[in-house]
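### Sample
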Amino acid sequence: MEYLKKPAVRPEEETEKKVADVAAIIADIRKNGDEAVRAYNTKFDGNTRELFRVSREEIDAARAKMTPEEIEDLEAAAKNIREFAKAQLNCVKPLDGVSVIPGARLGHRVIPIASCGCYVPGGSYPLFSTALMLVVPAKVAGVRRVAAVSPTVKGTTEIDYRTLAAMDIAGADEIYAIGGVQAIAALAYGTDQVKAVDKIVGPGNQYVAEAKRQCFGQVGIDFVAGPSEVLAIADESADPEILAADMLAQSEHDRLAKGILVTTSRKLGEEVMAAVERQLKALSTAEIAADSWHNYGEVIWAESLEEACAISDEIAPEHLEVCIREDDLEPVVEMLTNFGSLFIGQETGEVFGDYVSGTNHSLPTMRASRYTGGVWAGTFLKVCSFQRYNREAMMAVAPLVSRMAKGEGLMAHKHAADIRMK
């Protein structure tokens, strides 16, 4: 393994200050409710609206601004996401009739959560695709109340019209023009205008991520997301121009985003680096993409595909592309275990997953793919066990329970078993 391009060390955030700032906002909203939400909306977004919930008239006005083609594009993307979510849901089945001893019946039920909040970022870009990725699988899973939130366009009282239309097309039951920490706190603890939810999903900036972390327990979350990242494993057969384009597609997200190339060809690595510089000259988002690539982009030369896979699994990227010879694809894919979403073959660009392939683009970052996958229909489900004993089964296990409870010193537990045998 050798670095052809080594990244700078990402700056340590002012963690203590951030944690304290977020905690103060959450505490203020818990105490002062809508008044505090309104104050932070005004302070951070210039959003002075009194009623946070977006009306049907506002939604219709947003849809009216869309061209027919834009509406059709959103509906086509939503359809693909919906169909894949339905297929995923079909894999999660109730279980019944398991009998480990005569007279016992065990199983589990698959139960949708009652409500969820979907955080759709605003910031530098109107990420309307994220509205589809969060709301659609929640509705497919059977969540009765899906509340979508998003910051308003800076200095206005309105969510970007494309994001608002996407939320509506996706099937959101309620939409609120609230962003940032105040949106997470309102969804977690509730205010007069915003009823609390059971789970919050969706990406955001470092303050939104910290707010989700602090509210976890009061409310469920998907995961704590950080800056976006892509890793591509490539051999000499890959196209350097395509790989460069994929590195920049990730880099333009923000200045802390990360594009990583792991290649078995030193020549390809050098060609990709040269192609990135050429493509930057024609890129309208070059200011952000260049900062991200120059500071945090990585190009790593690996001696073999096996070593490339080991490097990738250690990094555990959010998005993982495999751009190698067709004959090697299947064995390499089998070696890979740590990734948020996998893109197999050069034709399968990561950007397709961002929008229309049907898989979800709300994915784990910062090595979290070691222990979790991304948002899917199952994110919004609870798998809850049940058991039923007849007297024969009860009499068979009660003595065992009694002895184990006694061994732990829990005498009321022992009594609860013993009393049933009398």
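The first helix runs from residue 15 to 32. This sample (Histidinol dehydrogenase) is used throughout the tutorial notebook.
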